[in-house]
Specification:
single chain; alpha+beta; 8 helices
């Protein structure tokens, strides 16, 4: 019986080749389809109309659609911003040294509305006022600051600790408990004992919230709101407790007539001859009518590098009123009072 061999390998290889051809055709078709889809999407994106300048997302009533349109609008603005940035960068690289200087970014500070009461240090009228105001005896070296720090009635632990830490910041400061006495009765006693300042820390719900700073014996009296109080124990990476050396004082951005008088009020709290051995600095930084207080010690790392170490406490002040003379809530004459709805209407206008 004859047996004939069937060429199995040939038929298998032919079938595999056919299958491979079919798979390749499918892959090519899929690739062409995806490419055409991408082109269509690009065309749709390019053909899609840009948002008109009068377009407002708030007009869309559907919440989900409004959110989607807002996100698209935001994304489009971001893309335009990035393209502009890349374009400018390329231009600057191409120009090299001849490139124009970088534009200063717009901030609320440099867009500030000009105030007519801005002080010119070389103005004769300002110099005359400084020579005859309530602080002239201090700046002429005739008196040395002596500060009494007290609180409102029945102070809590946090307020008492805050007063004690303030007494370590301000040289020649003494902390006394109020004992229910009215300020009108406290002021004559302070004048009799040669105090030049009365500082009253008020509290609400166990948290310091107000500061009355009264210059003696003739005033003026300033009332501040206190916020963001941080005691020494609450601060991270703080230095050791401050020494008894009198610190340097830095006053920043007190440019108007009102700001100038407030700056002089703060300066009169500290002696005029700082002891540089202590390397301590008290800073009153005015920014958008908020006065930030910081207390630092600077450390010389080498001949060129200097580091600073915060000692605390830190707090923020906001001026509420400035009164002529000593404290008198009923019959006192006010130089300036904060009217929030009138004065805070423009974000680019500041009082200090």
């Amino acid at each position: 019986m004859d047996i004939t061999e069937v060429p199995v390998t040939q038929t298998d290889s032919k079938g595999k080749k056919k299958k491979n051809k079919k798979m390749k055709k499918k892959l090519v078709k899929e690739a062409e389809g995806s490419a055409t889809e991408e082109k269509k999407e690009e065309k749709m994106e390019s053909a899609a109309p840009a948002f008109p300048p009068t377009f407002s997302v708030s007009e869309i009533k559907n919440k989900q659609r409004r959110h989607l349109m807002f996100m698209k609008l935001k994304q489009e603005k971001r893309k335009q911003k990035m393209q502009l940035k890349k374009k400018k960068k390329k231009e600057r690289e191409a120009l090299g040294d001849k490139a124009p200087p970088k534009e200063v970014p717009k901030t609320i500070e440099n867009q500030r509305v000009y105030d007519e009461t801005t002080v010119d240090p070389e103005d004769e009228e300002v110099a005359f006022d400084e020579g005859t105001d309530e602080f002239s005896s201090y700046f002429n070296g005739l008196t040395n600051p002596k500060v009494l720090i007290t609180t409102s009635d029945r102070p809590r632990g946090r307020t008492v600790r805050f007063c004690e830490q303030l007494a370590t910041v301000v040289p020649n400061a003494h902390v006394y408990y109020r004992r229910g006495l009215a300020l009108k009765r406290v002021i004559p006693q302070c004048i009799a004992r040669n105090f030049t300042f009365l500082m009253v820390i008020n509290e609400d719900r166990k948290i310091p919230n107000g500061l009355v700073l009264c210059h003696l014996p003739d005033g003026p009296t300033a009332h501040f709101k206190i916020s963001s109080v941080r005691l020494r124990k609450e601060m991270k990476r703080r230095g050791k407790d401050p020494t008894e050396h009198s610190p340097e004082v830095i006053l920043n951005n007190f440019t108007t007539r009102l700001g100038h008088s407030i700056g002089r009020l703060f300066a009169a709290l500290f002696p005029q001859d700082p002891q540089f051995v202590g390397r301590q600095v008290a800073t009153f930084h005015n920014q958008r009518d908020f006065i930030f207080f910081r207390f630092h010690r600077y450390i010389f790392k080498n001949e060129k590098k200097v580091g600073i170490q915060e000692l605390g406490p830190r707090f923020t002040l906001k001026l509420r009123s400035l009164q002529k003379g000593t404290f008198d809530s009923k019959f006192g004459e006010y130089e300036w009072v904060l009217k929030r709805h009138e004065m805070d209407a423009c974000r680019r206008k500041f009082q200090l």
